Amino acid sequence: MKNLSKFEFNPRICRDQIFELQRLLQSRRFLSERDDILPFFRERQHLSAFVSSFHPRIIRYDRIAFEFDIFGDFKSDLVVGDSVTQSYCFVEFEEAAATSLFASKSDRSTPEWSPRFERGFSQIVDWFCKLDELEKTDSFEDRFGSRSIDYMGLLVIGRSESLEPRERRRLRWRRENTAFHFVIGSP
To answer: Average pLDDT, stretch 46-58?
Structure first.
C-alpha cells in the first residue's frame, strides 16, 4: 500500500518544473500515460503537488502519494493533500493525444467522448464511491488522519490545440455542470 508522505512544497522548484512541463508538451504531440506522463510527474513532486491547486481548500501541499491505494480496490495516480484542512485532490492521468478527449464516428457529425476520457472519469467516480463507503471508519482515519475529508477529483488528459470551438464548449460545459448526484429507478 502506498501511503501519503509528508511533503514540503517549494514554489521556486515548482516554477522550474513548470518550465520543464512546457518543454515536454512542446517536444511531442503524443505523450503516453505510462511511458511519459507518469514518470515525468513522479520525478517532479513540487509540480505534482501544485496540480492540486484546483482544489480551493488545499492551501498547504503537505501530503503526497503516487499510485495511492484506495482500500485495495483502486489506485489513484496521484493524491495531494493539506493535512490541516483535511482536503485532498485525487488525480488520474491519461495520455496526451489529439483523440484523448473526443473520437469521431463516421456516421455522426459530432464527435463522441473518447473511451479514454470516459474510463478516466469513471475511475474517479469509483474512487469516490469507495471513499464514501469507508468514510468514518478506523481504516479511513488511519489513512487520512481524520474520519472525513474534503476531496475532489482531477482528470488530466488530452491536448487542447486539437479541439474545435464546439468541443471546447462541450468540455467546458461538462467541467462546470457535472455533479455526482444520481437517481436510480427500480421496478
So the answer is: 96
